[in-house]
Amino acid sequence: MDLDGAVSFLEVPPASLAIDEAELARRRPPAEVTKALRQRYAVVAGRVTPVFVPLWRIVLGRAKGAGFRVVLIDAITGQGVDWA
């Protein structure tokens, strides 16, 4: 999911991806993700939690409780996940 228009995606089959376990271990901690979201958007992340590796469930909220949105993002590819 490209929240700020700064990335592009290349669709490839999952089996063709080389997963680097060390790289996964270096992923950003939830506090850093929350801080980055606050710096880029007028939202407050109520919580950022790994649902299962490598999927992130992010709750985005507007200032003063005006509303919220939940997004699921593949933590490796950055693609949004839609299971609706």
Structural write-up:
With 84 residues, the chain is of the alpha+beta class. The protein has one domain (14-74). The protein is 19% helix and 30% strand. It is built from two helices and three strands; from the N terminus they run ααβββ. The chain has helices at 21-25, 30-40; strands at residues 43-52, 55-62, 68-74. It has a three-stranded antiparallel beta sheet with strand order 1-2-3, with helices on one face. A hairpin with a 5-residue loop joins strand 2 (55-62) and strand 3 (68-74). The longest helix has 11 residues, at 30-40. It is globular. The two termini are 16 Å apart.
Secondary structure: elements and pairs:
Layout: H1 21-25, H2 30-40, E1 43-52, E2 55-62, E3 68-74
Antiparallel strand pairs: 1-2, 2-3
Q: Brief description of this entry?
A:
19% of the residues lie in helices and 30% in strands.
Identify low-pLDDT runs: none
Shape: globular
Percent in strands:
25-35%
**How many helices does DSSP assign?**
2
User: Could you tell me how far the N terminus lies from the C terminus, measured between alpha carbons in angstroms?
Assistant: 16 Å
Helix fraction bin: 10-25%
Order of helices and strands: HHEEE
Q: Largest beta sheet: what is the strand line-up?
A: 1-2-3
Average residue-wise pLDDT: 76
Category by helix and strand content: alpha+beta
What's the domain count?
Answer: 1
**Describe the biggest sheet?**
3 strands, antiparallel
Oligomeric description of these chains: single chain
Estimated radius of gyration: 14 Å
Overall number of strands: 3
